[in-house]
Amino acid sequence: MASDLATLAEQSGTKFILALFVDLRGKPCAKLVPVEAVDLLATDGVGFAGYAVGAMGQEPKDPDLMAIPDPESFTPIPFVKDGLALVHCDPHVNGQPWPYAPRVILKSLIQRCSDAGFEPWVGAEVEYFLLSRNADGGIAVADTADTAAQPCYDARGVTRMYDHLTAVSTAMNQLGWSNYANDHEDGNGQFEQNFEFADALTTADRVITLRYLLSMIAAERGMIATFMPKPFGDKTGSGLHFHLSLTSGGTPVFPAEEDSRGLGLSDTAYGFIGGILEHACALQAVVAPTVNSYKRTGAVSTSSGASWAPRLPTYGGNDRTHYIRVPDSDRIEMRGGDGSANPYLAIAAALGAGIDGIKRSTDPGAVGQGVSTRTLPPTLLHAIEDFETDPLVTGVLDTAGPGVAEYFARVKREEFFAYHSSVSAWELDQYLTAF
């Protein structure tokens, strides 16, 4: 492994390596390692005080997290800084993979898929806003001319952000990700830049890498790239939609020549859909894991006229109002997740629910409907309550070791009540002189 990483660094002209992983919240954590220490990095990893990292299931007294690099994820990023590269790592403690590490959790779910006879493939749509700070500390759309009521796909909005969008596109193509489209999304200042699907782990790594690249490239131009689900109350929120498919021995298993429901899907695909829909309310705690997430899924409308966020756990064909959209017979699109989602956990949870649905031949219900008439959780607290009572979804987080789901629920409940205890501008407007 040492020679592999060293060779990659030498071939790419790398001078420094960001040894990176994320915590349960998705915060990117890294140490900057000089190439002269690449062999030590590859064999021993690099140490972190786990409690200082954030939500990683550790206390100050606990032993170090050792981030062990995965050479397959080595990514030169000279367009950020000359000679810089990034490598995704799997945190270990005392020589064992740390069960609270999101990448470790996803790898365990990929193994579960393999045990069931499947290889999971994932595409991701990363939506984000480009913003600036006002003199008073507030936020505004970075492009001051981006004021249209329906700005989606506006050629002028894309052109005004040409330098930023093309820099990101060029970076993705240099990395071999095959960027195939860059567009202005439905909110003012909102964009999406697409890359081709890959195996589940590679796509999750790329989502984290892309968030980092977008943040750094935007900052070079004095902008803030945010993946916050809903930074503006009257604008469309940012989703993180996942396109999911399975193969078996390299052969796609979702398409079917005969399908009485009319979507061109196999019984395996319908079982997969049924599993996700059955657990959708609990899944929301993982794929929409912040207080702000529920300002997006709870939105009735926006200035553009639509929220583009599902409110019911339903499925349908090429229809973006459903929790699961089926754009073609090769894949399904899961639309409940948002920009705050940790891609490792979100993909793992979706795969866990889907594989369980296949094993139990879960019926997703009629096309245009679903297995439940319940609405999705209205707040993060409701989502956590659904999560805690769903042994399948909690079991996904515990797949690499016990206690992770309980810890995750506690962290998120504390997050909700920290928000709930703060006094908002809305409360002052409503109550200050009302009585």
UniProtKB/TrEMBL annotation:
Keywords: ATP-binding, Ligase, Magnesium, Nucleotide-binding
Co-factor(s): Mg(2+)
Residue ranges occupied by any GS catalytic domain in the UniProt entry: 102-435
Domain GS beta-grasp: 12-96
SMART domains, alphabetized: Gln-synt_C (SM01230)
Tree of life domain: Bacteria
Pfam families xref list: Gln-synt_C
GO molecular function list: ATP binding; glutamine synthetase activity
Signal sequence interval, chain numbering: none
GO terms for biological process, alphabetical: glutamine biosynthetic process
PROSITE patterns: GLNA_ATP, GS_BETA_GRASP, GS_CATALYTIC
Database matches in NCBIfam families: gln_synth_III
Family per similarity comment: Belongs to the glutamine synthetase family.
Name of this chain's protein: Glutamine synthetase
Organism of this sequence: Mycolicibacterium vaccae ATCC 25954
